[in-house]
From TrEMBL:
CDD domains reported in the protein's UniProt record: FDH_like_1
Sorted UniProt keywords: Metal-binding, Oxidoreductase, Zinc
Gene3D superfamilies in alphabetical order: Medium-chain alcohol dehydrogenases, catalytic domain (3.90.180.10), NAD(P)-binding Rossmann-like Domain (3.40.50.720)
Entry keyword annotation includes Calcium: no
Family: Belongs to the zinc-containing alcohol dehydrogenase family.
Swiss-Prot/TrEMBL cofactor(s): Zn(2+)
Molecular function in Gene Ontology: oxidoreductase activity; zinc ion binding
InterPro entries hit by this protein: ADH-like_C, ADH-like_N, ADH_Zn_CS, GroES-like_sf, NAD(P)-bd_dom_sf
Domain Alcohol dehydrogenase-like C-terminal: 189-275
Family matches, as Pfam families: ADH_N, ADH_zinc_N
Domain Alcohol dehydrogenase-like N-terminal positions: 25-145
The protein's name in its UniProt record: Glutathione-dependent formaldehyde dehydrogenase
Keyword S-adenosyl-L-methionine applies: no
Length: 396
């Protein structure tokens, strides 16, 4: 079969690889019909290269048709249409039972690994071949795959694998009061969807912050009050602008949908052109040890949120020694929640919104549909934010 493989920094290629097979009684194999490209793939493309092995198959946002199931997958049959969550969870351990599928104790990766195994996400997360491929082996298929009805296009359901539960959890963790205010930093697929979820869940005002014009426009068209980072001389000005809109306090909650330096040269260039995405200079020994833009969005989030407010971090932070401004967090009495989305925790709730009325606008959410064989170009376009690319779906 054909699959998107990682070969080196900013080098992905579509290669011929062996077809996956059932290995465990709880496995299924699906024929992939759509597979998303995610900001998390950009971490692999650009940043997490030390953890990659050339030939690793990428992708964690697939859906498709069940081809084959193992003997211990009672609820799936060949021909079923399913969306596959990005994390692999067992459904019967303490963590899964607590709705914390990303901490699944059965699939947890030991050694240098961390939480539950993930599709297409380096040896840190189990080195499981990913779903940007024609076929995918799905471990723990008695629990993970979400059955969806025939009829509507893939675009209706495919975001259940990641974008929707991630945005959903971001908003749940933000704890926005009914009618309250929330600012979303970063309007990539995750931030854009988080704005939409906040709106349908009853936020009074949603502020969206980014520096890519098409992304700002997209959010504005759906009623988000947008702020272009390029039009502020400093982060202070941005904070003041949002305070002006919120009785001088700042928003009740801030969602950081940026995360750590995933954006490579495109963002670096905008910074050189004067974009105010560097919140503050670190001083003293910190300044020598850490580059200042490393936690740009996090620092901005901490400064933006009102006293006593909530920060919901959905962007991925991977630093082992990142400095946290503890005095500010403590003094402002900020609550923080974070982590990968627990897909099965939210998927049934989300499904009730995936209707013909399409309140979240999922059916027009993708900006690009490309054949799997165009993956190298799709990665480059998405990373560089060219051609209005926000969400790219690949079709094997
Ligand atoms: P993306 O890279 O397309 O979006 C990030 C956006 O942030 C871009 O539009 C960029 O212009 C903007 N940006 C960069 N610096 C900024 C700053 N300082 N302030 C405001 N905006 C800034 O990626 P995405 O697919 O939307 O994913 C966003 C983040 O969420 C990534 O870190 C990704 O790894 C993470 N993610 C987490 C989960 C989870 O389970 N928690 C799941 C999926 C993705
Ligand atoms: Zn993803
Ligand atoms: Zn489990």
């Amino acid at each position: 079969m054909k699959a998107v493989t990682w070969q080196g920094k900013r080098d992905v290629r579509v290669e011929e690889v062996p077809d996956p097979k059932i290995q465990e009684p709880t496995d299924a194999v699906i024929r992939v019909t759509s597979s998303g490209l995610c900001g998390s793939d950009l971490h692999l493309y650009e940043v997490l290269t030390p953890f990659m092995t050339p030939g690793d198959i990428l992708g964690h946002e697939p859906m498709g048709i069940v081809e084959e199931v193992g003997p211990e997958v009672p609820d799936l049959r060949p021909g079923d249409r399913v969306v596959v969550p990005f994390q692999i969870a067992c459904g019967h351990c303490y963590m899964c039972g607590s709705g914390l599928q990303t901490q699944c104790e059965t699939t947890q990766v030991t050694g240098e690994g961390m939480g539950a195994a993930l599709f297409g996400y380096t040896r840190l997360y189990g080195a499981v071949p990913g779903g940007q491929a024609e076929y995918l082996r799905v471990p723990q298929a008695h629990y993970g795959p979400i059955k969806v009805p025939e009829g509507p296009p893939d675009d209706r359901f495919v975001y259940l694998s990641d974008v929707l539960p991630t945005a959903w959890q971001a908003v749940a963790y933000a704890g926005v009061p009914q009618g309250g205010t929330v600012a979303v930093l970063g309007l990539g697929p995750i931030g854009d969807m988080a704005c939409r979820v906040a709106q349908v869940k009853g936020a009074g005002r949603v502020f969206g912050i980014d520096l890519v014009p098409e992304r700002l426009r997209r959010a504005r068209e759906r009623g988000v009050e947008t702020y272009d980072l390029r039009s502020f001389d400093s982060e202070k000005e941005l904070v003041a602008a949002l305070q002006d809109e919120t009785d001088g306090r700042g928003p009740d909650a801030v969602i950081d949908a940026v995360g750590t330096e995933a954006h490579g040269s495109a963002i670096a260039k905008l910074v050189q052109q004067g974009a105010a995405i560097m919140p503050r200079k670190l001083s003293g020994p910190m300044a020598e040890r850490f580059s200042v833009d490393r936690l740009a969005a996090l620092y901005t989030a901490i400064d933006l949120v009102r006293r006593g407010g909530t920060l919901s971090l959905v962007g991925v932070y991977g630093g082992m020694a990142d400095p946290m401004p503890m005095l500010t967090l403590f003094d402002k009495q900020i609550q923080m929640r974070m982590g990968q989305a627990n897909v099965r925790r939210w998927s049934d709730d989300i499904l009730t919104y995936l209707t013909d009325e399409d309140p979240l606008g999922v059916q027009d959410f993708a900006t690009h549909h490309v054949p799997l064989t165009d993956a190298p170009h799709a990665y480059e376009m998405f990373q560089k934010k060219q051609d209005g690319a926000v969400k790219v779906l690949m079709r094997p």
